[in-house]
């Protein structure tokens, strides 16, 4: 389906035609099917992120089965968690070509296949390929569409919707830990992974629920958002000028390419009509030609959008605040993962195992993390509150907790700090909202793919780096101090770049885009 002339005029900034007509909002925006999208994303977080947070159960089984070093065996879990996030930019290409629904369904099949093949592992290196790579890529193909679809379906309640959907991580951590522990006890770890693979096929059902919005609905949502942003100024709103101005300069090539695509399909249809009047033997071949032509156009269009987002005139990397956001993401996620990996050992060193067995510190983080996502989402949706400011305050709280955690020597002190870590890390639900405010809805899939890729790098190398620091100093204190200082560097980048952006004079293209 191609846009009409009126739609094209809308796309190229002809606001006079749009504002003269009353826009009838889609009932599925902020309501209706949008809540089914939230349910789908919630289940995806349970099955993917919840399972990854429960991999400690399987890690113990792998250590006993293969008798390898702890460092080598730990890479199986690190690969799965890291690759799930690192493949984000490439999954953005699949979304541009195939859409979120198809990408998520294929990813669900691939994830289940990785679990099932891992049940037949003969060594740790086999798990690197089947579980780390195969299941990790499949998880990434489902996770990114689940986040993007929530952003597309919500306008007024985006932060709340993202908060509700991402609480599946905390629920999944409890459910999957109990499930894997039970399955490993009753059936062994191999059968447990086989059963978990069958359960993971439900990701395909979650993908099927991701019904795409029509291009008209997306355009109307963008117009409503632009009107609301004029009346409500947000802190990161100035950073969208770069993307908007660059987007105007790249519209003309898109128009020419669209006209060429229409010409190709028109010629194929003309041949098809001539074939009907002449002979019917070539109709089957003409239909195949038409299908191939449409598929080629879809692939070219998706790749062009993906390529322009990263390397073209409207490249996301021309947005300095977004680049600072990427640098922040490279240090942020490891500060959340490291406590999950090393807290049990810290508790053992402090002789607090008895108290921790009653109520584990990691469980405190997971429980409060659920409430943190929901509460921060509700606060961010208040008319008088800036999502950007809530995001920054939560980051400051988390980095403070990371730096003070080594100073706590009692269970009560550690429990209080862990509760604050869990609550402040609820800002994860605000990341898609902040990303969309920075780059706009059109670039959300590719932009958020870059952000979670940076998080994946952090998750992949953060815990091993902390373990290496412990091997040198024989203390976990320096691991938290270094992680906290690097995290603070990322936050400083977020604070400096907006100030620089405000001081820079607006160029001519930016002023024309705003007019």
Plain-language structure description:
Residues about 1-25, about 230-255 and about 505-515 have low confidence and may be disordered. With about 525 residues, the chain is mainly α. The protein has helices at about 5-10, 15-20, 35-55, 55-65, 70-85, 90-100, 100-120, 125-155, 160-165, 170-185, 190-200, 200-210, 215-230, 240-250, 250-280, 285-310, 320-350, 355-360, 360-380, 385-405, 410-425, 430-440, 445-475, 475-505, 510-515. Helix 22 crosses helix 23. The protein contains 25 helices and no strands. It has two domains: about 25-215, MFS general substrate transporter like domains (Growth Hormone, Chain: A, Up-down Bundle); about 310-505, MFS general substrate transporter like domains (Growth Hormone, Chain: A). The protein is globular and about 80 Å long.
Question: Could you give the topology of this structure?
Answer:
Elements: H1 5-11, H2 15-19, H3 34-53, H4 55-66, H5 70-86, H6 88-98, H7 100-118, H8 124-153, H9 158-166, H10 168-187, H11 189-200, H12 202-208, H13 215-231, H14 240-249, H15 251-278, H16 283-310, H17 320-349, H18 353-358, H19 361-380, H20 387-404, H21 411-424, H22 431-439, H23 444-473, H24 477-503, H25 508-514
Membrane topology: Multi-pass membrane protein
GO molecular function: monocarboxylic acid transmembrane transporter activity
Subcellular location: Membrane
């Amino acid at each position: 389906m191609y846009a009409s002339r009126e739609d094209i005029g809308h796309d190229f900034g002809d606001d006079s035609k749009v504002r003269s007509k009353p826009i009838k909002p889609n009932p599925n925006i902020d309501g209706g099917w949008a809540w089914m999208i939230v349910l789908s994303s919630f289940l995806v977080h349970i099955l993917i992120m919840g399972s990854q947070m429960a991999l400690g159960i399987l890690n113990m089984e792998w250590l006993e089965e293969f008798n390898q070093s702890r460092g080598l065996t730990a890479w199986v879990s690190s690969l799965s968690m890291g690759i799930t996030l690192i493949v984000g930019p490439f999954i953005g290409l699949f979304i541009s070509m195939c859409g979120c629904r198809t990408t998520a369904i294929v990813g669900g099949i691939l994830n289940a296949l990785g679990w099932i093949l891992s049940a037949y592992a003969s060594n740790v290196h086999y798990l690197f390929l089947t579980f780390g790579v195969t299941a990790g890529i499949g998880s990434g193909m489902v996770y990114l569409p689940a986040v993007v679809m929530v952003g597309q379906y919500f306008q007024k309640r985006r932060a709340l919707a993202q908060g509700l959907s991402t609480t599946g991580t905390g629920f999944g951590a409890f459910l999957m830990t109990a499930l894997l522990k039970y399955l490993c006890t009753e059936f062994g770890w191999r059968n447990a992974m086989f059963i978990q693979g069958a359960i993971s096929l439900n990701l395909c059902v979650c993908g099927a629920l991701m019904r795409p919005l029509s291009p008209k609905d997306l355009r109307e949502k963008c117009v409503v958002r632009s009107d609301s942003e004029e009346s409500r100024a947000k802190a990161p709103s100035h950073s969208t000028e770069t993307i908007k101005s660059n987007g105007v300069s790249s519209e003309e090539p898109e128009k020419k390419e669209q006209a060429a695509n229409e010409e190709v399909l028109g010629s194929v249809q003309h041949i098809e009509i001539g074939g009907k009047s002449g002979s019917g033997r070539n109709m089957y071949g003409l239909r195949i030609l038409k299908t191939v032509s449409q598929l080629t156009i879809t692939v070219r269009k998706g790749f062009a959008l993906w390529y322009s987002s990263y390397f073209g005139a409207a490249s996301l990397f021309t947005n300095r605040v977004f680049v600072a956001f990427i640098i922040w993401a490279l240090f942020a996620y490891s500060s959340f993962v490291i406590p999950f990996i090393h807290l049990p050992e810290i508790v053992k060193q402090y002789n607090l195992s008895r108290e921790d067995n009653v109520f584990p510190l990691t469980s405190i983080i997971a429980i409060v993390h659920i409430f943190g996502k929901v509460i921060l989402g509700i606060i961010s949706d208040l008319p008088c509150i800036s999502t950007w400011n809530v995001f920054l305050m939560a980051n400051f709280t988390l980095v403070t907790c990371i730096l003070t955690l080594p100073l706590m020597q009692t269970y009560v002190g550690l429990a209080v700090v862990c509760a604050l870590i869990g609550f402040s890390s609820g800002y994860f639900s605000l990341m898609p909202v902040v990303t969309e405010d920075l780059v706009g809805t059109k670039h959300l899939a590719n932009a958020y793919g870059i952000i979670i890729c940076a998080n994946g790098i952090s998750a992949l190398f953060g815990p091993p780096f902390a373990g290496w620091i412990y091997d040198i100093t024989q203390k976990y204190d320096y691991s938290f101090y270094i992680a906290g200082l690097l995290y603070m560097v990322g936050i400083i980048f977020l604070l400096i770049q907006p100030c620089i952006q405000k001081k820079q004079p607006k160029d001519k293209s930016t002023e024309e885009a705003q007019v």
